[in-house]
Amino acid sequence: MVDATGKPFFREMIQGAQATGSGQIEYRWLNRVDNKVEKKITYYQRVDDKILAVGFYAPHASPAQARTLLDEAALAIKSAPEKAFAAFNNLSGRFIQ
């Protein structure tokens, strides 16, 4: 998967998680709310054999919000993985903001 400029951000994120366990990556992605390609920042963290990622569009959210959501997601995975993945996929749930 590549961004609007051709950057292989998904591969870079996986490699970073495998190498260091966590990190962040910036890329250009279509924001479907305003239908514009914007800068998106994603924080990621390896939890056991999974990689969790929380992304936000820089003009619309803050790094602190993304980090908090990533920490909450990691705790949810550690305590009840099946419930956590169901919550992640719930478009009306607390992990979609």
Characterization of this structure:
The protein is an alpha+beta fold. The chain has one domain (9-88). It is built from three helices and three strands. Strand 2 and strand 3 form a beta hairpin. Helix 2 packs antiparallel against helix 3. The mean pLDDT is 92.
Write the layout of secondary structure elements.
Layout: H1 9-20, E1 22-31, E2 36-47, E3 50-57, H2 63-79, H3 81-88
Antiparallel strand pairs: 1-2, 2-3
Helix pairs in contact: 2-3
SS-derived structural category: alpha+beta
Q: How many separate domains make up the residues?
A: 1
Mean model confidence by pLDDT: 92
Tell me how many strands there are.
Answer: 3
Run of helices and strands:
HEEEHH
Determine the strand fraction and express it as a percent band: 25-35%
What distance lies between the first and last C-alpha atoms, to the nearest angstrom?
23 Å
Q: What would the principal axes of the Cα set say about the shape? A: globular
User: Percent of residues in helical segments?
Assistant: 25-40%
Name the strands of the widest sheet in spatial order.
1-2-3
- Largest sheet entry: 3 strands, antiparallel
- The helix tally amounts to 3
Q: What would you call the quaternary organization? A: single chain
Rg (CA only): 14 Å
Low-confidence stretches: none
